[in-house]
Amino acid sequence: MVLLLTALIKREVKATFGRMLKVQAPSLPSVSEGVQTKKSCPPDCRHQIMFPSQIINEIKDVLCLTLGPRDEDEEIQFLHLEGLLGRLRQTLQCRKFICPASEQQLAKCTVELASLLVSDRVPIQGLNCHLPKKQEQQQAKNRLICSLLKSLLSMWKEDFEASVPLQLLFSQKNTVYLAGKKQHEWDTFLFILHGIVEYGLMADVEIHQCLLGLQKFAWPADFSKELEALLRIFISENDTEEPKTLPCELLGQSRGAVAAQS
Fold first, then answer.
1. Residue 244, SS3?
2. What string of DSSP letters covers 41-88?
3. What is the pTM assigned to this prediction?
4. Residue 124 has what DSSP assignment?
5. Fewest CB atoms within 10 A around its CB: which of 46, 110, 126, 247?
């Protein structure tokens, strides 16, 4: 009976993601708009790639395992996620089988995946680094997570022809994953925000507006203060000529150091 109930819940979670992918994301102007060019296959492309629908299903399986019911030992291999992102890149670079609708669904899937990686909700196996200190273990884990996020940032910049709905990173649903979380989730959130700016996917002012929109929701007091600190960081980066903190430098910073930047 329990197995049947779990299977039904998993099926409903997957159906929910399917409906979400079909909903048109609200448009948000991007600094990359107006520079779009029609992509074509690389010169040596042999079209031997996975179909977009297969990649979508693989990502949906990851999302469902993350948010749906699962056994304690149900985890995803880090190498599997790396391989999945590699297959996604190959599918995007070969334009033979991709269409605007499937590419838009892939874009939304990857943003949802990034949100779950940032909040450390994806049950990834193989991140238990054997280091003497817990802080060093967490920093090593962060670097592996950020390597996945860098792959996504690169694909959003180089391989997607469809606009990527990065504003979904700032949805109430995805921000709830961060509220009340630990220091390392805060670090990876900062990492991806600065990465989005560094890769030219959004401007500081666009991120500032998205963060500003989150203030209309009720958050725990500590998280509200963190949002205010983020707002000050992106205001200062937009209005001054001070050097920005690069994503790779954020991994070693404490939350207090980040707030001090503002």
1. coil
2. --TT----S--HHHHHHHHHHHHHHHHS---TT--EEHHHHHHHHHHH
3. 0.79
4. E
5. 46
